[in-house]
Amino acid sequence: MDTQTAKTRVEGSIAASERELLEILERLVAAKSITGNEYCGQAVMLEEFDRLGLEVDTWEPSVDALEDHPGFFRTSSYDECGYEGRENAVATVSGAGDGPTLALSGHIDVVPAAPESAWESDPWTLRRDGDEIYGRGVSDMKGGLAAILLAVDVLAEEGIDLAGDLYVQSTIEEEAGGVGGLLSVLERGYVPDAAIIPEPFGLPNVGIASAGVMFFDVTVPGKKAHAAWGHQGVSAFDKASHIASALNELNDQRQATIDFPPAYGADPSLEGHVTNINIGVVEGGDWPASVPAEVLMKGRVGWPPGESRADVRDAIESTIENAASEDEWLAENPPTIEWTGWNAAPHEVPRDAEIVEIVTQNAESIIGEDGTFVGGNAALDERFYKRYYDVPVVTAGPYGPNLHGVDEYTTVTSLLETAQTLATSAIDYCGIAE
Ligand SMILES: [Zn+2]
């Protein structure tokens, strides 16, 4: 069978497989696989791998095996749940020739659906309304996993033997940083020549980048006193707001000078805001009538490809040090900075990488519209492929404008188009066996 015939056949067969797609997605959505409790979602994936007759490898990640890796950090989901019972799963579809290996990869974990009462219907029951389907994870990214399964099923049904191997991956804890998920998959040896992750970036838009993200704690000291003798104390709140203003100024200056067009490719409102410093938690003080002795500010910095983690750490630390040196109290009693939790470097894939061109062409031809390159606002698992294994990776998935939100939704059409893009791109990339 020639490539074009094979592609036309899988496109037609996927278009006629709406019921199969929804049946898989319904079971995936019903599995409440919130980060830390992925087992119930993985059970559905394993049933599907079994139904497709695939060889599967499952394992729990191990901190001991990962902690020396430069991409490692201790995730909040590891701290809360450990890794016991939290298996990754990789199924291999062996190629019939010596073509390149492609990974189709997705995360099985979802964020909580709270407040569930705000949803129009139960978030854990797939609901269809015309072309729209609702439920936690339908776009991020159980819909993508269902599209992967459908693509693999249809390739087999149509009797298309790829020349290269396909890795079909279902990973844990992407929402907490993916260290025990995709990084563990790669460290186990599943390193393909290219990868596609159907996160909901809205085909024909194609994701080629992710943001760096780090969390930090700034602890600002004050001096405790009774409020009536407040002049004898030093308010840690006042000192913390001095530090917060300096960080705001740094943020303004960075936003005015740092640009990365893919970060606003799909959302023009993000132009001028492709990097962010946010103080998200402020804790301090213990009594209305006491001058607070300490304030803790917990922040996040996000930035597009272009700067290393060390560059960004230096910018923030020197801003805090300079602000402290301008203040008599803080010069003597400097704040402490600790980098804790999220610690992800950004990544960017060249636009002319073969997998980027293949996926872009297939998506544009299937959907009949031109797409744009997007990415660079949020951290993604994709970084592990590109940064540490030099594997080109594309984010290519369904429509999903309110991922993580109430009434998360996507469309049946965009999931079928995702499956078509995955299957045709696998044919182009891996080749067809003689
Ligand atoms: Zn996701």
From TrEMBL:
The lineage of its organism: Archaea, Methanobacteriati, Methanobacteriota, Stenosarchaea group, Halobacteria. It catalyses: N-succinyl-(2S,6S)-2,6-diaminopimelate + H2O = (2S,6S)-2,6-diaminopimelate + succinate. One of its GO terms (molecular function) is metal ion binding. InterPro entries: ArgE/DapE, ArgE/DapE_CS, Bact_exopeptidase_dim_dom, Peptidase_M20, Peptidase_M20_dimer, Peptidase_M20A. SUPFAM superfamilies: Bacterial exopeptidase dimerisation domain, Zn-dependent exopeptidases. Its EC number is 3.5.1.18. It comes from the Archaea. The keyword 4Fe-4S does not apply. One of its GO terms (biological process) is lysine biosynthetic process via diaminopimelate. Belongs to the peptidase M20A family. This is Probable succinyl-diaminopimelate desuccinylase. Pathway: Amino-acid biosynthesis; L-lysine biosynthesis via DAP pathway; LL-2,6-diaminopimelate from (S)-tetrahydrodipicolinate (succinylase route): step 3/3. Its cofactor is Zn(2+); Co(2+). Keywords: Cobalt, Hydrolase, Metal-binding, Zinc. Signal peptide: none annotated. It comes from Natronorubrum bangense JCM 10635. Residues 209-327 form the Peptidase M20 dimerisation domain.
